[in-house]
Write a structure and sequence with these properties.
six-stranded antiparallel beta barrel, repeat, Riboflavin synthase, transferase, mainly beta, 4 helices, riboflavin biosynthesis, six-stranded antiparallel barrel, globular
């Protein structure tokens, strides 16, 4: 479980069909075999640590649901260690289980912040609500508005600086994780025959 508060921008050192090696001094400082680290919102399990670089195995399911397989050495990634019982919940409850890949369709800069609009993949819009939480590339954000399959968020200067979202361009893909509570409510209602 994560909070969606990015701890540092890491850098991909090596990527293959089966694993990913990432340089992240903060998250690697106390990482151990079996720990979970969110990489652009994807929960990966640490299999080794050497200095400030951790390595994680990557499953076929992860490649199918995310763009982790398109990462190359030198790419920047958002990193967060798993939450503990003493972690402040500055964002919201994030599983690190990507629901799909959205696309950036518009960036509207303002004096002190920027509005970014995304297009959701089919089937996810029903889980996104105005003023609700959403995770984009592992970053906990608040939905400003949603219309059809498009929604926007506001990014403050800190988020633009401290995450990959400040560097992404129109057309770039991003990982989306919707609020898990909405998915559980839907399943319960379906089981009860309400929908």
């Amino acid at each position: 479980m994560f909070t969606g508060i990015v701890e540092e921008l890491g850098e991909v050192v090596k990527a293959s069909e089966a694993f990913l090696a990432v340089r992240g001094p903060v998250v690697s400082s106390d990482a151990a075999l079996g720990d979970s680290i969110s990489v652009n919102g994807v929960c990966l399990t640490v299999v080794s640590v050497e200095g400030d670089v951790f390595t994680a195995d990557v499953m076929e399911e992860t490649y199918r649901r995310s763009v982790i397989g398109k990462l190359e050495p030198g790419d920047k990634v958002n990193l967060e260690r798993a939450a503990t019982l003493t972690t402040r919940l500055g964002g919201h409850l994030v599983q690190g289980h990507v629901d799909g890949v959205a696309e950036i369709v518009k960036r509207t800069p303002a004096a002190e912040w920027e509005e970014v609009t995304f297009r959701l993949p089919e089937g996810l819009a029903k889980y996104v609500v105005e003023k609700g939480s959403i995770t984009i590339d592992g970053t906990s954000l608040t939905v400003a508005w949603i219309e059809g399959d498009e929604f926007s968020v506001g990014l403050i200067p800190t988020t633009l600086e401290a995450t990959t979202l400040g560097r992404k361009q129109i057309g770039d893909p991003v990982h989306i994780e919707t609020d898990v509570v909405a998915k559980h409510v839907e399943k319960l209602l379906q089981s009860a025959g309400s929908i």
